[in-house]
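Chapter summary example.
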Amino acid sequence: IDFSGGHRPGPIVQFIDNVFMGSGDDLLDLDNADAWVEGNIFLHAHKNGSPDASSAISAGTGAGASSDVTVIGNIVYDCDHGALAKQGAFLTLLNNTVVRQTHTSGLDSTGAVLCLADPNTAEGAGSYLEGNVIWEAEALVRNRTNALVTFTNNLMPLGWSGPGGNNSTNDPLFQYLPSLAETTNFTTWAQAQVMKQWFSLRAGSPAVGTGPNGRDKGALVPMGASLSGAPVGMTSQSNVTLV
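The structure predicted for these 243 residues follows.
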């Protein structure tokens, strides 16, 4: 899907609870478009004939305006890049599960969880990542020069010395880690939902109860907003301010 247009506080495009199965370029290509991307499954995005990088979600500039995209509760499996923020775009990634980030099925020279520029394009503004589970990855970041990238409270296999903190490299203890061959024959949305079962967390996982607002890390959390800071117990007050 290649989409342009729409910025907050006006209407923006939303992609919710879909399955995207394979691309030689980007699965979602968003230019000059703020967007909300939640609860989707992204599979097998590998550069094959594209002049630039391939990713599950790409955000950049169109008609002189960039993109601000919220990416929450998605599963990304077997992609050159989990996300691409170029040309001043900014991505906020919360509670996603990114597994088997690799470029080995495509024509790119390398890959990473997050890419900040295509060849011969301006760099993105950056990205904020919190509560994500990342497993089997070549690198966290590619093509970053000045972009502000923050990793806070993620479970990921590689260390990070930049902005953020409280990240862990422990094994997430998925219920099941599928092979590539087990993910290439889905023909319906319903068949692909097994990915959510596979990437749910076993008892004792370090991702259980350690994510934002005390929920789990990773994509398998209830959709919708979560709130913290509410007072404990009963009260006769009819108003509350949460900070």
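To summarize the output: The CA atoms of residues 201 and 240 lie 34 Å apart.
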